């Protein structure tokens, strides 16, 4: 009897000593464009909420849309909003939740040239294979003081489905009728010329190791890797860089629809950086417990505390009006 009581006492002590519940894991996948800020957010949120672990796979927006559609993740992420046709395939309803604003840059590797100015039409012609030399008159006109070489241009682009690509080709389609007709817009397109790299990481690596190359990456990848990137002539005719205030300026003049699916490329405004975009989390409007409630709490945290972390990583926080709209949408999640 004494042994039985001893065993029961030990068992009770073990139960009381055990954690009330293990950490709940929330799984997401998608865009590489916002990966630096998402990685920071998920770590910071876990520090304050040890009961929640958010795992995120940086696989590209195409993969994020696919996995969200197939419901193999708890949330997806994309830089190119889902089309009506894509949303129609979803069993249930997916909400687009804007998180931050970021920018694509025209990153280049050109010996002897650190500063470069390019325009949308010139970029379109480079990526169409119409401009093939660095000393082409169209590039020289924008950079009269630069020592542009006669070397051939090597174009670098994404090989995977990508929201970074969507932003880039959305911009090129807006500023070039030839691009719109020949290639168009999408997270994945048929490239006329160039070499492909997987993810922002892959394109960044290819640019660094390929002399005389040019490609597009999310701004933070170029900044973190010390790659040069061009100033882009905006709609007002001003050469602009992807500074936080210039990215914010691109969103200032746009009216935000209730579903948040909007393009802000080639925006109005003297200082607006022209290759900017919102990036979105793809969240189901109905989520089972406990993950649904925990994800909803993270989204609230993201709007209140997470936004403060955006500028240090090169992203622009959501405009105040958009933040309030997103907060209202989050509360509709069941």
Shape: elongated
Separation, N- and C-terminal Cα atoms: 52 Å
The biggest beta sheet reads: 9 strands, mixed
| Total domain units | 2
Secondary-structure arrangement, i.e. CATH architecture of the largest domain:
3-Layer(aba) Sandwich
Please report which band the strand proportion falls in: under 5%, 5-15%, 15-25%, 25-35%, 35-45% or over 45%.
Answer: 15-25%
Give average pLDDT, whole number. 91
The number of strands is: 12
Rg, rounded, reads: 23 Å
Question: Uncertain runs with pLDDT below 50, 5 residues or more?
Answer: 1-20
Helical content (DSSP H or I, runs of 4+): 25-40%
**Count, helices:** 13
Instruction: Write the CATH fold name of the largest domain.
Output: D-Maltodextrin-Binding Protein, domain 2
Q: Briefly, what CATH class of the largest domain?
A: Alpha Beta
Structural class, from helix and strand content?
alpha/beta
Q: What letter string, H or E per element, gives the SSE order?
A: HEHEHEHEEHHEHHEHEHEEEHEHH
Looking at CATH, the homologous superfamily of the largest domain is Periplasmic binding protein-like II
Description:
By secondary structure, this protein is of the alpha/beta class. The protein is 39% helix and 20% strand. The protein has two domains: 131 residues, Periplasmic binding protein-like II (D-Maltodextrin-Binding Protein, domain 2, 3-Layer(aba) Sandwich), CATH 3.40.190; 150 residues, Periplasmic binding protein-like II (D-Maltodextrin-Binding Protein, domain 2). The chain has 13 helices and twelve strands. A hairpin with a 5-residue loop joins strand 10 and strand 11. Helix 5 packs across helix 7 and helix 12 runs antiparallel to helix 13. The longest helix has 16 residues.
């Amino acid at each position: 009897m004494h042994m039985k009581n001893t065993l029961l006492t030990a068992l009770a002590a073990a139960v009381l000593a055990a954690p009330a519940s293990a950490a709940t894991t929330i799984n997401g996948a998608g865009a590489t464009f916002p990966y630096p800020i998402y990685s920071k957010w998920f770590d910071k949120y876990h520090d304050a909420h040890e009961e929640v672990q958010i795992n995120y796979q940086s696989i590209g927006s195409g993969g994020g849309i696919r996995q969200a559609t197939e419901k193999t993740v708890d949330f997806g992420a994309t830089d190119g909003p889902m089309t009506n046709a894509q949303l129609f395939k979803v069993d249930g309803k997916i909400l687009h939740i804007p998180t931050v604003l970021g920018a694509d840059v025209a990153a280049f590797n050109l010996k002897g040239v650190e500063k470069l100015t390019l325009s949308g039409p010139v970029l379109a012609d480079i990526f169409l294979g119409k401009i093939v030399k660095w000393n082409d008159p169209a590039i020289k006109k924008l950079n009269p003081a630069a020592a542009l070489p006669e070397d051939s241009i090597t174009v670098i682009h994404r090989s995977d489905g990508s929201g970074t690509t969507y932003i880039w080709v959305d911009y090129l389609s807006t500023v070039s009728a030839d691009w719109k007709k020949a290639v168009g817009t999408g997270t994945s397109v048929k490239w006329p010329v160039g070499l492909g790299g997987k993810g922002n990481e892959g394109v960044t690596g290819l640019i660094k190791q390929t002399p005389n190359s040019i490609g597009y990456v999310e701004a933070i990848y170029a900044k973190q890797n010390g790659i040069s990137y061009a100033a882009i002539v905006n709609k007002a005719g001003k050469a602009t860089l992807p500074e936080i205030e210039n990215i914010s300026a691109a969103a200032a003049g746009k009216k935000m629809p209730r579903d948040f699916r909007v393009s802000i490329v080639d925006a109005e405004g003297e200082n607006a950086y022209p290759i900017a975009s919102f990036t979105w989390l793809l969240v189901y409007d109905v989520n089972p417990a406990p993950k649904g409630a925990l994800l909803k709490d993270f989204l609230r945290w993201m709007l209140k505390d997470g936004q403060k972390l955006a500028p240090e990583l090169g992203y622009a926080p959501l405009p105040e009006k958009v933040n309030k709209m997103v907060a209202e949408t989050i509360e509709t999640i069941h």
